[in-house]
Amino acid sequence: MHFDNVEVEAASTPDERARRGLAARARHLAVAGRDPLTGLLSRVTLLKKLERLVRREEQLALLCVDLRDFRVLNESLGHATADALLVAVAQRLRRIFPEAPALARIGGDAFAVACPGIYSDAEAREQAERLVSELSRPYSVAGRVVRVGWWIGAALCPAHGDRSEALLRGAEAALQRARAERCDAPALFAPAMRVELRQRAALDCDLRRSLDEDHFHLAYQPIHALGDGAFVGVECLLRWRHPERGEVPAGDFIPLAEETGLIVPLGARVLGRACRQAAQWQTAGLPPFRIAVNLSASQFAQSDLVQTVEEALAESGLPARMLELEITERVLVADVEGALEVIRRLRALGVRMALDDFGTGYSSLAYLQRFPFDRLKIDRSFVAGLGGEGPGPSIVRTIVQLAHSLQMDVVGEGIETPAQLHQLRRAGCDFGQGWLFARPCPAARIAQLARLRKPLAEAV
Question: Which of 14, 91, 127, 275 has its CA 20 to 30 A from that of 117?
Fold first, then answer.
């Protein structure tokens, strides 16, 4: 029997021995109450340590951080690289807080740190800002430079909880508030957040049920040429008509859908329906105009995205040149080379690509130079600053000139006043959308607008 064991060991490959070693380490860490991947405390062990701290009536802040768009990173970088990133985060946490009484991984991409000696909200916020600043520096993982963002929430002991579970729930509720509001600043616990957490859980259940029962529909935001006001296209927008609550604002459910991954099947459904509707408009004899569809970061990271787009075009019969796909800068940040390859493949199909919400992210000239975008969309926050005092017109004019120099046309979003329209025209902006022209409307109204005035030839 002993001889057989020796033979088996000798015949095993280096990969098999490495796997057995990792499995043994994971078992050891689990027994020790630690996370098998990072070696940090597990959630259960964190609660035990916190309980000892609060029983000693220690004044402390519990900070919970959550990596933004980790689902997207997992898809775009691969699971092994994403795991290596989590290990790198854990190592950085140890360097930032070498004497912290508790450092833990409390979820797939969430971490917690106990900071003793924190007596006020201001001190907690300062510590949280320091933590996010350090964690946001680029990581070198598997030969790639990876940039990530963070949400952070904090709760104080004893002010927000004098037991470990209450303290952790409070910090996680604050974290959830930051995530829901997509807020860069730290969120500090407030009692109302517990109610919000329960409401969010209920909304998650409703969202899943509505996806199964198809309570979603599309609306279309007209896009007009700013030179003569001609109707030239639409942006497709997702709407949720809840069977009991009625229309649910997109700002309430889109972030939740992104966080839970439901945005992927929802997005595929939107793309298919949008292409079919656009094809129906063309079949009805309307002048040709493009339809723009937003792609979430999670959708863009899907390995079969190009195939999904191909199938939507083929099933609908819509010519590829009539479809425009919009992505935001945050889609590009994590894996620049991978994003560049996907965009090139999509454009090879004949699909146009637009960079949406420009000015709200990194706004990097390097991105604009490297990525073959056809269109740049100025975020509504810049448009809102037009028509009054301040640098708004100069900023918009610079963005337009930059885009034109790179052979991109420009769309101003969220135009609501004649003054904003006037300033965009003066800046040389090509196209615009907003309530000044029309609110998002059903397909039948779009058909009426298209018949009223033909689009400019150069816009198609």
Answer: 91
Nearest in space to 148 (alpha carbons), one of 111, 100, 103, 104 = 111
What pLDDT, in 10s, does the model give residues 306-337? 999 999 999 999 999 999 999 988 777 667 77
3-state helix, strand, coil in the chain (%, to 5): 50, 20, 30
Instruction: Give the CA angle between residues 263, 267, 273 to the nearest 5°.
Output: 150
> Using an 8 Å Cβ cutoff, are 95 and 28 in contact?
no
Going 73 to 77 to 81 to 83, the CA torsion angle's sign is: positive
* 24/77 Cα distance (integer angstroms): 26
More confident position, 240 or 361: 240
Least trusted range by pLDDT, from 74-83, 189-198, 336-345: 189-198
Coil vs helix vs strand at 44 = helix
32-68: b (≥16 Cβ within 10 Å) or e? eebbebbbbbbeebbbebbeebbeeebbbbbbbbbbb
Structure tokens that stand for 361 in this block: 């992210």
Residues 6+ apart with CB under 8 A from 431: 223, 224, 225, 226, 232, 233, 409, 410, 411, 412, 459
> Pick from 255, 262, 328, 266: which is nearest to 297 by CA?
328
Within 10 A of 374 (CB to CB), how many other CB atoms are there? 15
What 8-state DSSP symbol labels residue 361? Answer: S
The continuous run of DSSP H or E covering 356 comes out as strand 352-358
Q: What single-letter amino acid sits at 128?
A: A
Helix (H) or strand (E) holding 225: strand 216-225
3-state secondary structure of 376: strand
Task: For residue 37, give the 3-state DSSP assignment.
Answer: coil
Q: Which of 353, 383, 380, 351 has its CA nearest to residue 368? A: 353
107 to 37, 65, 114, 458: CA distances (angstroms): 12, 10, 16, 51
SS3 state of residue 106: coil
Judge whether 72 and 298 are in contact, CB under 8 Å.
yes
Euclidean distance between CA atoms 2 and 394, whole angstroms = 81
Going by C-alpha positions, the residue among 258, 348, 267 that lies closest to residue 310 is 348
**Which pair of tokens denotes residue 37?**
């991947």
pLDDT tens digits along 98-117 = 988 899 999 889 999 998 88
Q: How far apart (Å, rounded) are the C-alpha atoms in residues 277 and 383?
A: 30
Cα separation, 460 vs 449, whole angstroms: 16
Length of the chain, in residues:
460
